[in-house]
Every structure is written in structure tokens, then in C-alpha cells.
Write a structure and sequence with these properties.
The structure is a single chain. With about 220 residues, the protein is an alpha/beta fold. It folds into two domains: about 150 residues, SPOUT methyltransferase, trefoil knot domain (Alpha/beta knot, 3-Layer(aba) Sandwich), CATH 3.40.1280; about 40 residues, tRNA(m1g37)methyltransferase, domain 2 (Trp Operon Repressor, Chain A, Orthogonal Bundle), CATH 1.10.1270.20. The protein contains seven helices and nine strands, in the order E-H-H-E-E-E-H-E-H-E-H-E-H-E-E-H. A five-stranded parallel beta sheet has the order 2-1-6-5-7, sandwiched between helices. It has a two-stranded antiparallel ribbon with strand order 3-4. Strand 8 and strand 9 form a beta hairpin. The longest helix is centred in the N-terminal third of the chain and has 14 residues.
């Protein structure tokens, strides 16, 4: 799957792809990342990408020209939907992650300041996604959140040993959260692992895991 990320802070995003699972997925060719600096598309002599809002008010807005040019350029390479990170968007969840993981390509647009000129949203944005009911300084963390959640659903990215199949919120879990986990040792500072888990009885273990799933709050 191909991800194109548009941001004015590429250095906030790039290191995340240089370690752990996403790096492995990148190295195996299952996922690819292309990070574009919106500022590179500015025709302003100082590479300006923001201006004051019409009608007044606090803060700056990202202007049309760099965003139109950047998005149009990236759309030549990536035929997927343009997703704008926005606290006003539809709330991101596992179902949305599943849906996006079925696509081959997506473009993620990160806002900054007070956001972006409405004309960009009207003309070039296909979907708006929020990662929660709070306001961040920019769309980079939301974009990475989406990329991370989507990437681990792409076949090959997680090894078989850490499959996403039984994870909380996954399709086979009926909306429940995963059971508690324990690892060695069987006793730590007097705290014991439930007997059933070390019994070797796989039927009973499966039953215990099922009855110990929790409801999301
Ligand atoms: N003035 C805007 C918030 C701007 S925050 C408003 O009131 O709606 C600056 C940028 O950060 C946004 O354009 C968006 O890209 C990103 N952002 C902030 N919080 C976010 C969230 N919860 N989910 C997704 N993106 C978010």
C-alpha cells in the first residue's frame, strides 16, 4: 500500500518510518511512504504557506496556492482518496482502519495553524478524519496514527506471531476488547498467573480468554 503525506513538517513524520514494524513493512515492500513538503510548492518568494483569515480573528490559515499545487502534483502519482486530518472530521476507529487497508493508495493532508482555506476542502479533499475530540497543533500525529493502524492490517506487515486477528475491536471480536495477557514468570513478587493459562488445556484456555474479554467503555 502506498501512503503520500503532505505536511509542512516532514521531519516530524519521517522518523516514524525508520524503526520497528513500519520500517520492516517498508523494507519488505508491503508499504511505501512518500512525504511531501507543502512549502516546496509555494510560489511566494519566501515560500509562505499561511495568511490571515478573511473576516478577522486569531491565528493564520494555510493558503490555497501551495495546497492546490501540492495535492494536484501528488494526485498524479497516487490515485487514492485525499484525506484531510481534521477535528471536525468523522471519528477514526478500527472499522475505518479496516476500510482504508483495503485501498492500495491514500493521500493524507496535515493541517497546521487554524487549519486550511475552505476552498481546498471543497475542491480537493475526499474524506475528513478526526482522531478524537481534542485539538492538536497539527495533523501529523493523526496522519501517523492512521498510517500505523492501517499498516498493521496489511498482509505481511505484522508477522504471523503478532497477527491482528484477535485484537480488540477486530471483526471476530464482536466489539469486545481483548482478554488479559500474561508472560513468564508464572509468579512475580507473589503475583500469580491464572492457573488455567498454565494448565495446557487449550479448550479451557480458549474459554477463559473468551469470558475474560471486556466491553469497551
Ligand atoms: N481551528 C481548527 C483546529 C486547527 S488545529 C478547528 O477548530 O477545527 C490545526 C490542524 O491540526 C488541523 O487543521 C488538523 O489538520 C490537525 N488536527 C488537530 N486536531 C486534530 C484531530 N483531533 N484529528 C485530526 N486532525 C487534527
Amino acid at each position: 500500500m502506498r501512503f503520500d503525506i503532505l505536511t509542512i513538517f516532514p521531519n516530524l513524520v519521517l522518523p516514524y518510518f525508520e524503526d520497528s514494524i513500519l520500517k520492516r513493512g517498508k523494507d519488505s515492500g508491503d508499504i511505501e511512504f512518500h512525504v511531501h513538503n507543502i512549502r516546496d510548492y509555494s510560489k511566494d518568494k519566501h515560500n509562505k504557506v499561511d495568511d490571515t483569515p478573511y473576516g478577522g480573528g486569531a491565528g493564520m490559515l494555510m493558503t490555497c496556492q501551495p495546497l492546490f499545487d501540492a495535492i494536484r502534483a501528488v494526485k498524479k502519482e497516487n490515485k487514492g482518496p485525499v484525506i484531510f486530518m481534521s477535528p471536525q472530521g468523522k471519528r477514526f476507529n478500527q472499522e475505518k482502519a479496516n476500510e482504508l487497508s483495503k485501498l492500495n493508495e491514500i493521500i493524507l493532508l496535515c493541517g497546521r495553524y487554524e487549519g486550511i482555506d475552505q476552498r481546498v476542502r471543497d475542491e480537493l479533499v475526499d474524506i475528513e478524519i478526526s482522531t478524537g475530540d481534542f485539538v492538536l497543533t497539527g495533523g501529523e500525529l493523526p496522519a501517523l496514527t492512521i498510517i500505523d493502524a492501517v499498516s498493521r492490517l496489511i498482509p505481511g506487515v505484522l508477522g504471523a506471531e503478532d497477527s491482528a486477528h484477535d485484537d480488540s475491536f477486530s471483526e471476530g471480536m464482536d466489539g469486545m476488547l481483548e482478554h488479559p495477557h500474561y508472560t513468564k514468570p508464572a509468579e512475580f513478587e507473589g503475583l500469580k498467573v491464572p492457573d488455567v493459562l498454565i494448565s495446557g488445556d487449550h479448550g479451557k484456555i480458549a474459554e477463559w480468554r473468551k469470558t475474560n474479554r471486556k466491553n469497551p467503555n
